[in-house]
Structure formats: structure tokens, C-alpha cells
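Hey, resending since the last one bounced:
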Amino acid sequence: MAKIATVIHDLFEDSEFTSPKAALEAAGHEVVTIGLEAGSEVVGKKGEAKVIIDHGINEAKPEDYDALLIPGGNSPDKLRANDQMLDFTRHFSNAEKPIFSICHAPQLLVNADVLRGKDITSVKQVAVDVKNAGANFIDQAVVIDPSGLISSRTPDDLPEFNQAIVAALK
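The C-alpha cells again:
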């Protein structure tokens, strides 16, 4: 089964991590957390989910993973300031490995400069950013780009998002 890297930082949207993680694990996949520092704890913005980071970005090797999950919330905005995180993200785009992006997650993809010409959705307030990055913004529950980028808007779309990301790994 697939090994999924999840890039995550404090104030992630709780359900945008816990729900896809549960769906992926139920399908037999391994979900690994990548953050700024291995062993550190990050907390969701609602305080419902706490995550211990498996690997720091300085030790994580993107070639060890089959797909990338980016939960939303404030986490992507914090991560996009880190050059190693941007390089890690670019690997998945350049290799056309699946990237699973929800809500505010495209902020990381904007800074990695990997959206040009791709179809994507996001939470409404990030739509201008993805358009300015050269992406084709589509306002629907799930958007699947031929490159392997699968995106969704908000926690309300999690059932459709989870179904799409699990199907992409079959």
C-alpha cells in the first residue's frame, strides 16, 4: 500500500487531518507526519487533534513517499515560509505524484510555484491566490487535475475528498 507524507504545523484544521488520515489508514495506507521538527507536538486550531511529528523536514526525503497530503487551517501559511518544505512539495508536483490539498492547503502550493495551468479548488478566500499563481480555480466539492492534484474546499467536502483520495491510490 501507499506511504503518504502529511505536511503539518500548528493550527491545522483538525478534521482536515483526522478525517483523511482515518480514510487512508482504513484503506491500508500509511500516513506519516512531516513538520519542522521531529518529535514536536502540533495542535489543531480547534484543539481537538494533537499530532506528534514523525519526521522533521530536514530529514524527510520526498522520494520515500507515494503521495502528499496537505491539511488546511493556518498550517499551510506557516509551512510556506520554509524553503525545505517548498522543495519537498515541489518534488511531488515534478514527479506527478498525487497531492491531496484541502481548504487553505493551496497556500503552500502557491509558494512552491506548482499550480500554473492546473485545475484546483480551495476555500473561497484562497481562490484569488491560486488564480494569481496561474491555476484554473473551479468552485466544486472535489477537483481532480490530470497531474494527480486532488483538491477540496472545506471540511463540508471531506466525504467526497476522502473517497477521491482513496480511489486515486488504487
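The first helix runs from residue 14 to 26.

Sorry for the duplicate.
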